[in-house]
Amino acid sequence: MLKENLKIWLRGVSFLLLFILWGGELFRLKRSYLRKKNRLKSFIYYSCLSGYGSWIGIESKIEDVPVFPHGMYGIFVSDGAEIGKNAVIFQQVTIGSNTLADSRKQGSPIIGDNVYIGSGAKIIGNIRIGNNVRIGANCIVVEDIEDNSVVVMNKPRIIKKTHSQNNTFITRGELKSQDRHDNH
């Protein structure tokens, strides 16, 4: 319990130090500044993000500090990605580059102003997301989206079964125990 509380406290302190050191301009840092001028700030930056399972590339361009309603958990923003002003980004969002040599959409996304990105959304490749766009939870966006649009997923496919299914969860220990009994 004490160890877990210490981790939480250190994560909070590192996040606070991050904002004190940069006056809230965390997302405007340049790679050369972090690497050449102050390795301590670079260490704190990446330590803070890794505590949240996140990565925001130094070469990404973010106009204004985004709103993270559920914290920065699992957020990935690749180098080269651009995010405009007043962005709202929920947890588990990926804004990623497409680096496949034979791809038509090779590069990083450019996201406009006032964009709302729901949890689990994936925005991949050299695409443009317009201004005032809403992207729903778990959407996968790989093409340009016009201004003032809403992106939602298709209805899930439902597979009807003719008999009931056993949805009991089996732990690894129970599974190993069953294997031992089956082998004797």
Give me some keywords for this one.
29% helix; four-stranded parallel beta sheet; alpha/beta; 184 residues; 15% strand; five-stranded parallel beta sheet; 13 strands
Q: Can you walk through the features of this model?
A:
The protein has 184 residues and is α/β, with parallel strands linked by helices. Helices cover 29% and strands 15% of the residues. It has four helices and 13 strands. Helix 1 packs across helix 3 and helix 2 (31-37) packs across helix 3. The radius of gyration is 21 Å and the shape is globular. It starts with a helix and ends with a helix.
Q: Give unreliable regions as ranges.
A: 19-25, 27-33
Please write the string of helix (H) and strand (E) elements: HHHEEEEEEEEEEEEEH
The largest pleated sheet is described as: 5 strands, parallel
Order of strands side by side in the largest beta sheet? 1-3-6-9-12
Strand content: 15-25%
What sort of overall outline do the alpha carbons produce when their principal axes are compared? globular
Helical residues, percent: 25-40%
The number of E-state strands comes to 13
State the end-to-end distance: 42 Å
Counting H and I runs of at least 4 residues, what is the number of helices? 4
Average pLDDT, all residues? 78
Q: What class do helices, strands and sheet pairing give?
A: alpha/beta
Radius of gyration: 21 Å
